[in-house]
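Hi! If you just cloned this repository, the fastest way to understand the data is to look at a raw example. We've pasted two of them here, unedited. The first protein comes first, obviously.
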Amino acid sequence: MRGDTAVVDEPALTFAGLLRRLRAETRLTQEELAEAAGVSPRSVSDLERGINRTARKETAVLLARGLGLPEAVSVLFVAAARGRGPAEDVVAARQGTALGAFAAAATRGLPRDVAGFTGRRAELDRLAERLDGLAAGGGVVGICAIGGMAGVGKTTFAVHAAHRLAGSFPDGQFYLALHGHTRGQRPVDPADALSSLLLTAGVPATQVPPGLETRAARWRDHVAGKKILLLLDDAASHEQVRPLLPGTGGSLVLLTSRRRLTALEDAAVISLDILAPGEAAQLLARLTARSGINAADPAVGEITRLCGYLPLAIGLIASQLRHHPAQTAESVVASLAAATDRPELMRAENVSVAAAFDLSYQDLSPGQQRLFRRLGLIPGPTFDAYAAAALDGASLGEARRQLDELYDQHLITEPTLGRYQLHDLLREHARALAATDDQADRGAAAGRVLDYYLYTALAAGRHFAPGPAPTAARRPATRRRRPRTCPPSGSRPPGWKQSARTCTPPRTTPPPAATPGMPSRYPPRLAASWPPAVTGISPPPCTKARWPRRARRETGSARPTRCARWARCSGRTGATGPLPPAWPGHWRCTAISVTTPAGLTPSTSWASCAF
């Protein structure tokens, strides 16, 4: 009783009622359900009438498949059929899935093409060649997989290409978003995608069969002998795409994905890279649509460079300039140059570069996420699997597998064999994510990779033969130099040597400053260990003539005992004192490729400095 009103509780939903309800929703008779599930009509009838209150697991699995239930709902259905779960959970889960199924909304038509499409001439030519090959191939279905990192413009390119090719497919163009990387939304189930495609193609709802395999067969039968263009956007995997492919030739399938769909046979691959600097400047000028901002403006070129020549980042910055007339290209350059996390600044409403990167990051396993964050700590533009293994504290094989997965997700590139690289904005994003990790773990990871670089540098130094000493360019002697005198013997520090012409100070190594973001203990150890590694090719002690006067004044050293030949190559000090920042012209860095013999440290690369 509630007040004066009597409330009668509704009876709990039984499995018999659940089965009748699901069969009615799919518009199947008992015989049709039995045929689709591969069971006898008597079994279906006994279950619906309650003669058999439960079903065996094998029968329940077959019925779920015949009803075309998604995997999550199928698990609950089997539990309810065996009496191990309430039937109401199946109804609730199915309602939630049905709401999400509307995400599989195919359209008979293509999305709007953008007017500011710029560049990609070579990729469009490759796609045209693929179409020519399709015409010559006869019964082959053309499949073109368009991949690339987040924000590189895969969907924009695919839509633009589809509009250009639409005239070659008179039987229709279909577009379907698969939501492989959509925030707050699961990837579209292939069975739901097929149902949406069939309905869009004109198949009556009563003729859409249940189950993935039967729907895939019905789709292939419907488009057989037709020339259609199917654009599948944002695919999550090859398993999601394969059931949607037509079965006969004459059709073309364009699909985009952030993953490299390597298991998809006979697919032509077009990997989109960042834009060329000139194309990026043209894109920014077109999207900004403001007087005074043109592609030839140096500030525009600097903006695109700070955007990493990434189309999404350029489009978001152009939107800011278009809607904020007070902003200038110069002010945007200053803002981006001063930012410590540029991806966060590149946003418009709820769209941002950081959010796009984060969707790819969320697809990774915990171990892959950890390695991606730590890759932002590596100094320098490229790295190899050995550095990644040291950084992550893993074996070489495990590091290679993790790097392969990051490569498949378009989170890293491989510009040369065995050398990997992060995009500038992805590196900043990884560094921002790493800032949330424990400081001790971050420092330990950075220490391991520095140990690896130190070890390889020491090993490499043993394989250099001593070379001829470089000749010092001396200034012409215009006057006789007075010899220096040492302090009095009573107050003279140990290590000073007095000769007939000069006094030599002790050979000491001043403690260098720590590199920002690195453990403070590593630079001193590196400076102390570096000279023995390069003794065979280090220059002789410097003379006063070779030490710039301003350097002597700023460092307080009248005569260094060794030229700071190895200074500042990696942001650290040399063996004899800091390199004055005002004298960069006195130094040059030389990249040295080293290949050690078998059994020792593998091939690596390091840098040396010289006058």
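Ok, and the second one:
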Amino acid sequence: MAHAKWLTRRMHRFTLIGSALVLVALLTATPALAETSSWQKVDAGVGIGNSINHVYSQSQGRLWAVGGYYEENTGKGVSTILLSETGGQDWTKQVLDGVQYPLNAVAFSDPTDGVAVGNGGMIIQTTNSGANWIHRGFANNTTGRYYEVAFADDLHGWIVGTRPRYNPDEPNANSPILKTNDGGATWFQQQTPCDGYYGLELSGLEVLDEKNAYAVGYYSETVNTELHGAVILSTHDGGNTWTKWSVQALPNTNISFEAVSFGDATHGCAVGNETYGEGEVIYTTADGGVTWTRRRSSDAPARAALMDVDFIDANQGWAAGGSAIVATTDGGVTWTTQPWPSPNWYLRSITFSSPKLGWAVGDNGTVLKTIDGGFPPAVTHTVTAVIDSVLPNPVATFVWATLTGHGTDSGGHTITGYEWTQGTNVLNGAATFRARALAEGAYTMSLRVRCSEGTWSPVVSQVLTVTKSACSLTAPKVSGTASARRGTKLIGSVSPGHSTKVTVEIRRYAGGSYRAYKKYSVSTGSSGTWGFTSKPKKGTYSVRAYLAADTGHGAGSSAWRKVIVR
């Protein structure tokens, strides 16, 4: 996990001249809060101008946070050390004597022994849980900055930062990596493959155990060169040797890593910024740092420069920086933005002690806490289907039954889908439809609806009863004379009488049997009678009438009637 170097390297000029300019510089890029957040602000008792650069979880109940500022009028540095014994809900300031600079990181090797590092080559140590702090920094390192400290156990730990100065005659004299083998009482430098470079700043550190550690940052090989970029250093022998993996910056751009975190021995993530803090940088590894792959958090606000990252396992992690908090559940392949209240200040550090419990800190005394992983509370809504009517019910065989329904969503989402079913058969996908051609019996007609969010409602049902049609038709008969020359008028009726449509089927006798000849569709009057005139050829015919199946009034058929046309 990392710290907040970008403040001191990229934004240091703002912090030196007071809080008024900090307000102007940072509020101009502040996005609006888009949704409810599970991150809640906590009052840490420090105000405008005091940046909290790092938060460290010693246990779920015990937390440390460090930071500081430069006095506006004198330029004097002030250190801030905060302790919470209530899981980050309440904070108390620790008293620090002597020369002070803003602090950038803190870590503990055991329950009582801890080290904090900061600007001006500042290294301070406590051996009594913060009751007193002892200066351990190098006297000649007043221009360099230390950005991160981490321990493998109660004896072994590392510090990374910038070296105080570059001496071309002694290029390896001032390595930005320090090691302790006595719990932080004394520190010594370790050589890196980049010590001969003109510029080397290491801002992030992850210590897996006594042998394995990773440091990330920025390098520049020579003065005024394009050979610069982001660097990852790793050791697997306790720091005796370090190997380099780097990303060279494109022309006219800059890229740097600010933090690194591993969820296990092989899965890690390094984050940072590109082009002087204007965009995010995310790289992941699944092979212990042998290879790294660039990732994107496409919905991060303005692709914010990321300052810190923390993984609790191989899959779940968080990163913070600028006004953004992003989270991943797939090892850093994809990321989701997590909103937080009033994101007016830049975030510098983030840490989690469990998948649910986490904290983030930043500018102007900002302290945030989440108890559910930072994910916004789920918006619950109920989708309900309603069958308004099934008419007529009961319905006669081959009569249209009209089914009407609607849906509601308690969350205000639009109902976009309907599904009517009978048994396993899907009948229709509209709010209203008509069904027919059902045999006698009882049928369970079911409806469910879907909202615009894709959620289906539970199924609701209503029984449709189908009865045998009570409608009857008289057999067609000839009105007058059946004449081929003058035409033949056929008439008939439907009982009970009503307006409907009747199909008149005519078959002609030929070759020893009746064969299909013609069909006519006629309408009845309100009394149920019908009639029309046809001009068939001379011959013998058989005629019947039946209700059209789609009339909506019933189905039935008359007897056949023999008609001879002369």
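That's it. A detail worth noticing about the second one: The first strand starts at residue 40 and ends at 41.
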